[in-house]
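Hey, I was hoping to borrow your eyes for a little while. I've been staring at a protein lately and its backbone has me curious. You're getting the sequence in one-letter code plus the fold written as tokens. Would you mind checking whether the tokens look sensible for this chain? Here's the protein in full, and shout if anything looks odd to you:
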Amino acid sequence: MTHPERQYLDLLEYVLANGDERVDRTGVGTRSVFGAMLRFDLSAGEVPILTTKRVYWKTAVKEMLWFLTGETNIQPLLRDNVRIWSDWPLAAYRKATGEDITQESFEQRVLEDDGFAKQWGELGPVYGKQWRRWLGADGVEHDQIATVLQTLRTDPSSRRMLFHGWNVPELGAMALPPCHMVYQYHVTSDGRLNCLMYQRSVDLLLGAPFNFVGAVALQLMLAQQAGLTPGEFVWTGGDTHIYLNHLEQVREQVSREPRALPRMQLAARATDIDDYRIDDFVLEGYEPHAAIKADVAV
């Protein structure tokens, strides 16, 4: 039986060999293909946390929990030792002030100075805002997560169980428009919850591994809250790319043999979707290869 991670490695190799080399928004350049799909079966407890390099899965889960709060400021993330969103507000601060501040110093100021955090740690109406507080033209806020969960409980055969973050009027105010932008859910007749996540733009080396973890963590939470069991996680990519400064790292990763996927479970049933904490996620059997370092293209 083919190892589930092999499909990801095959996709890396395909993009390396066949990707269209082009200049992108960041100026770094990519090799890109358009359209990709991966499928992972979660029903036996295995989750797609990659083994051919170490994935800092707790960081990805903490990010997903932060999204669920509806928060859009990096201060709570930094308090939780999550620094993956610092690059964008740091770049904005440097551009606006001309100050050549280090990332460490910038983050420390955000942590210690609430006024500074309010002005410079804000990302705009990114993921959490759209998921939990989508503002309609009529001024009414819509909690998309709550709506999906209610539908899972009351009308699980619905074909309308989805949420997304592509709020056109607010895109310009976002530090980064949503990449993993649509999540759709499907319940089988025997009570398995499937998720299809569409990602319009995906950094295959750095972004995709985190996005797999976050989406699956949310799927486990929703399944538990709705009294369902996890089924399939289906990932789809639009502009699926490798940055040109990641080519050697990708070649290193595809040379490694996958190891057994870990198993993830929730330690206890939370009262509601807003009550989960990182300690509720229990991972067993994760023995990956060494981490692979690479720079984020901003």
About this structure: Residues 143 and 265 are 26 Å apart (CA to CA).
